[in-house]
């Protein structure tokens, strides 16, 4: 990615730079390198906003909001999530709206608003089912399970992780299945 970013910078390919920054932001998020993730997502947001590229901006807003939530910047996370939802409603994008609801659930979870988080996650699951998006459903179920884990309800967390695993198995997302299996093992060890 970094080499690609340099190439885009040398040719002043702004869309390429924004896309690489967005992808790097996700990579840094997955490895919990929060400062780098925030920097990359913020730059991507700024570039897509300058271009007025709403088709990519909504997703970039959600990626940024998700990282902001995980780093306890909840007000700013909600702001970017709402910006994304405005675009998604205009586009009529159900998958995107499902993702926005999932991010709202993450924000509520980080703020210990369990009932609200559960409602957002359930709405996301319904939207994923309407959009026939088993991957999105699996991601939402994983986040719902993590909420129960954070709330110390290990039984519910395990049951929901098994549902997430089923969604990922449905489409052959083996990497996600492996992650779920590790989390289920962790729960089993904690339960003794």
Any overview of this molecule?
- This protein is mainly α and 192 residues long.
- It is 86% helix and 0% strand.
The counted number of beta strands is 0
**How far do the termini sit from each other?**
42 Å
Q: What percent of residues are in strands?
A: under 5%
> How many helices?
10
Helix content: over 70%
User: Unreliable runs, pLDDT <50, ≥5 residues?
Assistant: none
Overall mean confidence score, pLDDT: 92
Biggest sheet, open or closed, and with what strands and sense? none
Shape: globular
Task: Kindly summarize this structure in a few lines.
It contains ten helices and no strands.
Question: Which helices and strands, and how do they pair?
Answer:
Layout: H1 2-10, H2 14-30, H3 34-51, H4 54-70, H5 74-91, H6 94-110, H7 114-130, H8 134-150, H9 154-170, H10 174-191
Helix pairs in contact: 1-2, 2-3, 2-4, 3-4, 4-5, 4-6, 5-6, 6-7, 6-8, 7-8, 8-9, 9-10
Features:
192 residues, mainly alpha, 0% strand
């Amino acid at each position: 990615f970094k080499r690609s970013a340099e190439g885009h910078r040398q040719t002043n390919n702004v869309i390429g730079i924004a896309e690489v920054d967005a992808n790097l932001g996700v990579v840094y998020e997955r490895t919990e390198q929060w400062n780098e993730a925030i920097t990359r997502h913020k730059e991507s947001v700024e570039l897509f906003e300058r271009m007025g590229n709403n088709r990519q901006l909504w997703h970039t807003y959600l990626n940024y909001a998700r990282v902001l939530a995980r780093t306890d910047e909840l007000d700013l996370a909600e702001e970017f999530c709402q910006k994304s939802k405005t675009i998604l409603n205009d586009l009529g994008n159900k998958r995107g709206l499902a993702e926005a609801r999932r991010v709202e659930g993450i924000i509520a979870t980080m703020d210990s608003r369990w009932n609200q988080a559960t409602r957002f996650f359930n709405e996301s699951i319904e939207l994923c089912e309407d959009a026939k998006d088993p991957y999105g459903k699996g991601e939402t179920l994983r986040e719902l399970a993590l909420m129960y884990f954070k709330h110390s309800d290990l039984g519910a967390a395990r049951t929901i992780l098994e549902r997430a695993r089923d969604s990922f198995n449905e489409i052959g997302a083996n990497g996600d299945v492996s992650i779920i299996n590790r989390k289920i093992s962790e729960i089993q060890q904690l339960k003794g």
